[in-house]
Amino acid sequence: MIRNKLSSPKLSIIIPVYNVEPYVEKCLRSCAEQNIPYSDYEIIVVNDGTKDNSLNIVERVAKEYSNITVVSQKNAGLSAARNKGLSLAVGEYIWFIDSDDWIEDNCFKKLTDLLYENCLDGLIICAANVLNGTPSKRQDYSELKRTFYSGIELLKMNYLELCVPFTIYRRDFLKENNLKFKEGIFHEDSEFTPRSYYFAKRIAVKNDVIYFVNINPFSITRSINYKKAFDYIKVARSLSTFSQFIPTDLIYIYNNIISRDINNSLYNSYQMDNITIRTLNIELKKNKSLFKHLRKSTIAKYRIEGILFDILPRHCVQVYKFIQFINFNQYKYYSAISVSNKMQSLTN
Prior knowledge:
By secondary structure, the protein is of the alpha/beta class. The chain folds into two domains: about 10-220, Spore Coat Polysaccharide Biosynthesis Protein SpsA, Chain A (Alpha-Beta Complex); about 225-330, no CATH class. It has helices at about 25-30, 55-60, 80-90, 110-120, 150-155, 170-175, 190-200, 225-245, 250-265, 275-285, 290-295, 300-310, 315-345; strands at about 10-15, 40-50, 70-75, 95, 100-105, 120-130, 135, 150, 165-170, 205-215. Strands 1, 2, 3, 4, 5, 6, 7, 8, 9 and 10 form a ten-stranded mixed beta sheet that branches. Helix 1 runs parallel beside helix 2 (about 55-60), helix 7 runs parallel beside helix 8 (about 225-245) and helix 8 runs antiparallel to helix 9 (about 250-265). The longest helix is centred in the last third of the chain and has 32 residues, at about 315-345. The chain is globular. Mean pLDDT is about 90; it is low at about 330-345.
């Protein structure tokens, strides 16, 4: 690794790379060709043992820019690659960017100005999904009228932007609160972000689209992998431990988040064979202590699940699917009534 030395850059961009040959050059150039001096930001590319031509592309592009550093490691997963980049970063603010996505042209000046002028712990930005060249905005924060919020305030309002690239963090804030990514799992964002928001005292929200998500059907997040279901249980278990140190008046927030993670795990069961479903049921039974979060959720569906899972801990998947079936049929019933009422009003 050749480390390009920068004196106190404002921003560190961390880009993990693994098998993204068709996309990585666009991502890298969108970050490198910006509207602040090279000395004001660094780009750290972490090659996570890529097996395709991604590293050759990155090294070729890096030769054109003095502020790009490339470091390689054996494949250890996205979390480990992000943590590696974080350990090397020297910028005052950290932005984790996925290597198959890209960012808006000439956005660094307005972002760094906003971060510096307001001493932010975090800045939430908007993103757009891009499918077949057509962008579609993912979020709308127009209802947020204030300039700044604490992370807890955003959690209370259910404005939890799980996807890590959509929040730019102050590096010292991450360091002071020992905020790193849990390694060896999928859904590391779901584990990291609810913890980071809890500690953040000053967050701004920018309602402009800054980040573009390439809808890549072969990406890690969109591929079928049974491990995802079991990793959601690990996420729930980690957040359950974290929630033990949270004031009682805020516990409901994490009861709902953990309940959602359990449901996300169970949702994966629709793609499982019977043997894997049996294994998932066993794993949930082993983690029966998590059911308390379901029972104490503010959401009725989760509370019902928690009660039934306690009664039938060996059949959580079947109970979950039964509740989903009931909810779906209720939705169809009330939708049909709504359509019928509208038709009657038109004929009257």
